[in-house]
Amino acid sequence: MNVIKLVLLAGTAASCPLGSAGNRDIMEPDMANVDEEMEGFRKSRMAIVRYNVLLELCCRIVSLELKEHPRLPDGKIKYRKMCDLIPQSILAQCPADFRQSYVEVLEGIEKNLSDNISWGGTPEGKEMFSRLEEARKRFSDQYDLEPLMRPLIDWLDGQETRREGESPQEYLKRLYQLKSDLESGKWVIPEGLPGEKPGPECMKSVAGQ
């Protein structure tokens, strides 16, 4: 159920006169169901956001590693999968439909590209990329991800910027540390209902509290 419909339903129920104790007995189970659905929606939304932020970071890490070590000893182009860098514990928190419709398709794309870097231009490759984009749009709409993802990606872009005098090895090490901090919860991704945008302090360091 769309979260906006849930909020409207909750607001309508809360504004209705309760009347007798018998009416309260009828209303309260419904409200409990609404609360349970909203909590499930919230958890699913934040799990997808956390996965997407980590995926963005892993994409940068893989790109840097490829730039530093573009080829394997046998001369073949190195291809490391982004999905391999994301812990199963993070993935397990995502809704089953998201894992099946988005993550499994992404993993299939990465596997095929690792076998043949030109695979993306084949009819099969184009079809799978189309499925991935359709799933991305569907989940973005279903969970209203854009208002929360946009400031998070802006924050991540700032963290990913290479610092003056930072060597490639130091840069990569810092990105891996950021990845570890996000996975462990040292950096907390804020929550919010659709339409709410975090401010500049959108990421909060637990260690800094």
Features:
209 residues, mainly alpha, two-stranded antiparallel sheet
Strand and helix map with partners:
Layout: H1 3-15, H2 21-68, H3 88-92, H4 96-115, H5 123-142, H6 146-160, H7 168-184, E1 187-188, E2 204-205
Antiparallel strand pairs: 1-2
Helix pairs in contact: 1-2, 2-6, 2-7, 4-5
Helix content: 55-70%
Strand numbers in spatial order across the main sheet: 1-2
| H and E order | HHHHHHHEE
Count of DSSP H/I helices:
7
Walkthrough of the structure:
The chain has about 210 residues and is mainly α. It has one domain (about 45-209). Helices cover about 65% and strands about 0% of the residues. The chain contains 7 helices and 2 strands. The chain has helices spanning about 5-15, 20-70, 90, 95-115, 125-140, 145-160, 170-185, and strands at about 185-190, 205. It has a two-stranded antiparallel sheet. The chain starts with a helix and ends with a strand. Residues about 1-25, about 195-200 and about 205-209 have low confidence and may be disordered.
In short:
This protein is mostly helical.
